[in-house]
Amino acid sequence: MTETTHDIFLKGALTIEQPSKGYRAGTDAVLLGAAAASIPFRTALEAGCGVGTALLSLGSLRADSKLRLTGLEKDEAAWSLAEANGTRNPLQCEVNFVLGDVLAPDEALLGQFDLVFSNPPYFDDDLAIRDPDESRQAAHILGAPLDAWIKGMLAMTTPKGRFLMIHRADRLPDILAALRGKAGDIGVCPVRPRAGDPAKRVVVSARKGSRAPLRLLAGIDMHPPVGDGRFSLAYQAICDGGVLAV
After folding, report:
1. What is the C-alpha to C-alpha distance for residues 202 and 170, in angstroms, rounded to an integer?
2. CA-CA distance, 171 to 142, in Å (whole number)?
3. How would residue 142 be classed by pLDDT, with cut points 50, 70 and 90?
4. What single-letter DSSP state applies at residue 46?
């Protein structure tokens, strides 16, 4: 049986059970949930939700009984933990976790969500990572080009609905290419380790079917310019329950 830990998020508002080894939710999930919370919606789906950290963070930040949240996950072990985490962290809104694959979404999910958001695996190529832990490999290897993942996300989004993704900064050209002609009003939020450093992540939002121009946002620095490893005031505020405007 896989060993797990119980970890605290949002200043104790959430307790998330996740594997003690392999892929573990952290900074990316926190940023994704905080960014999703800044977007108006009634129905939202997280594609590849893992153990449910970002989705449940969103539900905690947006306490509204009229909202409906869905987590889509193809790994049965992660899906099972997500289900347990949903029970462990009761929210005001409706939350469901569904077994399925964003690369081949069920017809019942197509065009159904005002917001579709994701932290996809970071690599298209199974030669890009050599980790002995199979669950960590699965979480990092996409198994298809990134544009196929984005295509699946957009297919589940309503007309004029919102798309949201956090990914490696060096994949920004690929993300923009996949959105070209399909979505506009694209917002790019750089995530930098420190002020003056190159961004390591980007949070990209877009509106399906829009032709509005791209917006380059100020972004966020994770740590002060100098210090002892503590988080910046801006990121600490997000960890404590703030949102990330996108």
Report:
1. 9
2. 13
3. low
4. E
